[in-house]
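Hotdog fold domain-containing protein structure dump, as promised
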Amino acid sequence: MASTYDLYRKITALPQGKRLFSIAFSQKAPYFASIHLKVDEMSPHFAQITIPKRRSVQNHIGTVHAIAVCNGLEAAMGLLAEATCPKGARWLPKGMEVEYLAKSTSDLVCTAESTAEAWANGPDVPITVKATRADGTVVVAGTIHLWVTPKK
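structure tokens r here:
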């Protein structure tokens, strides 16, 4: 079976490929569909998605709800992990630490980044995540910790 990263590279080479991949990815983990994400980039050690500011993700003050932002951060982390995890290993999120730094008043770009060193020093692999508004302000920043172990 093709890996998620292989599918990303194959599908995004097609016209409307990023849109099609975003839909497929959202269906793999249906909760991701609730934020209407768009996959912008997926590669080893980096992934980026966009969450549009829509009524369905807003809270009572009209900003993107903190949990919707965390959902976007986890989606970006999952893409990074799928593209980075070594063959013969598996990953599982084991915790998330985030700080809410500013109001989420626009579409948000969620990124996840890691280093080769972090993956080599596992099994606890920290992934740096952040969500940025359209004006460049970081609204949420944190770390998602992965547990990376050999497949049995």
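The chain has one domain: 4-150.
lmk if u need the other ones
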